[in-house]
Amino acid sequence: MSDLLIRAAGGVLIQESDDGLRVLMIHRPRYDDWSMPKGKADGDETDEDTARREVKEETGFSCRLVEEIATSHYVDRKGRPKRVRWYRMEPISYIEFVPNDEVDEVRWVRIDEADELLSYERERAVLAQVTAV
How far apart are CA 40 and CA 37, in angstroms? Predict the structure, then answer.
């Protein structure tokens, strides 16, 4: 097992709709999982820049950071320690999402349905921190 920490960051995008709050989720065909957009830092890229870049690459949304929500720590599929910093983000512009090998679907999901769809408990815990009022 490598001791080199894998740094990653992601975004939690929430929007109001006629039937309540929705969260933006992505489907990754490689893992057949549903998660919120996130990804690894490129070199010395800051965590904030990583979150903005990954959300845009995976969803088409350019966003501004609102606040840091939480940090997840776990061991990835390759046995490496990984840290994901999560940010509440607001969309400021959008380019059309094009399905690809990394993300084949982007979906706004009602908050009350997100727990069931999210594949990872650690992301459920992050979402619960955002929606707890």
Answer: 11
In the numeric block, which tokens belong to residue 77? 């599929």
Residue 100 covered by a domain = yes
Can you give the CATH number for the domain in which 53 is found?
3.90.79.10
Beta strands in the chain (DSSP E): 6-17, 20-28, 33-35, 38-40, 61-75, 81-94, 105-110
Q: Could you tell me if residue 1 is inside a domain?
A: no
**Domain that residue 33 falls in:** 6-131
Query: 1 pLDDT band (50/70/90 cuts)?
Result: very low
CB count within 10 Å of CB 124 equals: 14
Nearby residues of 3 by Cβ (< 8 Å), 6 or more positions away: 81
Note if the pTM is more than 0.90: yes
Separation of CA 12 from chain center? 6
